Structure formats: structure tokens, C-alpha cells
Recover the amino acids of this structure.
């Protein structure tokens, strides 16, 4: 069987429970057709680069799938019909990533950066224009 990553974007006005139900429905489609969902990640509500069908944000969900090509074709067909999904993309990969995906690690990295910013030196010696005194 081949390995795939399937990412879909759900409408911004859906509740998290509805997004989880969409992921479960996709998992059921794969498993009913003798495939296997290795991992499911919900990346949360994120801003879009441009408006899609009047949505400025979307819920992102990624599924790592181990299944034959016919299963992926059926999953894409069902996803295309669903009105709650505004975009989707399936990519064939050589191997699945071990541990959290890049998108999940990005959130951890951002939290670490915000903690590091709290350790900045005092800025009381700035002048009225924002520069250091004497410049």
C-alpha cells in the first residue's frame, strides 16, 4: 500500500466538534475501504492567505494515510461533495514523519520565542524618538 498525507480546510464557522466529526468521517471512509489512518492532526483555526468562498480563516486537519490509490480517490470524491470542506489536497509521500508534523512543531517554536522575548534587557534608556540617548 502507498503512503499519503491528506489535508483539508473546513469552513471557519464550524465548531471544533464538527471539524472532529469531518476527520472521523474521512477516517471511516479510509478504513471501510481497507486502508489505515496512521495519524490525525488538527492544526486549528488559521488565517488564509486570501479569501476562499467568503472565508478569511479555516480549520486545518491533516490525515496520514496508508492505503491503495483507489481509497484515496474515494476519499477525495467524498471530500469534494462535502459543503463544509472548502479546500483539500492529497500528496503521496515516501514515508510518514515520525512525531509531530512541522505545523505542530511551529506552534511549540512560537511559544518558546515568546518566552525568550520576556527576557529582554530593560529599555528605560531610550529617548523620545525610540533611539538610545546620545544618538
Amino acid at each position: 500500500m502507498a503512503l499519503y498525507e491528506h489535508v483539508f480546510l473546513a469552513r471557519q464557522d464550524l465548531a471544533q466538534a464538527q471539524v472532529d466529526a469531518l476527520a472521523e468521517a474521512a477516517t471511516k471512509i479510509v478504513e471501510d475501504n481497507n486502508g489505515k489512518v496512521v495519524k490525525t492532526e488538527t492544526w486549528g483555526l488559521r488565517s488564509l492567505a486570501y479569501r476562499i468562498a467568503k472565508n478569511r480563516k479555516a480549520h486545518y486537519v491533516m490525515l496520514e494515510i496508508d492505503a491503495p490509490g483507489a481509497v484515496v480517490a474515494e476519499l477525495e470524491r467524498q471530500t469534494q461533495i462535502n459543503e463544509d470542506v472548502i479546500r483539500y489536497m492529497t500528496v503521496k509521500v515516501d514515508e510518514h514523519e515520525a512525531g509531530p508534523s512541522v505545523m505542530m512543531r511551529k506552534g511549540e517554536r512560537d511559544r518558546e520565542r515568546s518566552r525568550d522575548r520576556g527576557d529582554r534587557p530593560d529599555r528605560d534608556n531610550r529617548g523620545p524618538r525610540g533611539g538610545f540617548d546620545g544618538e
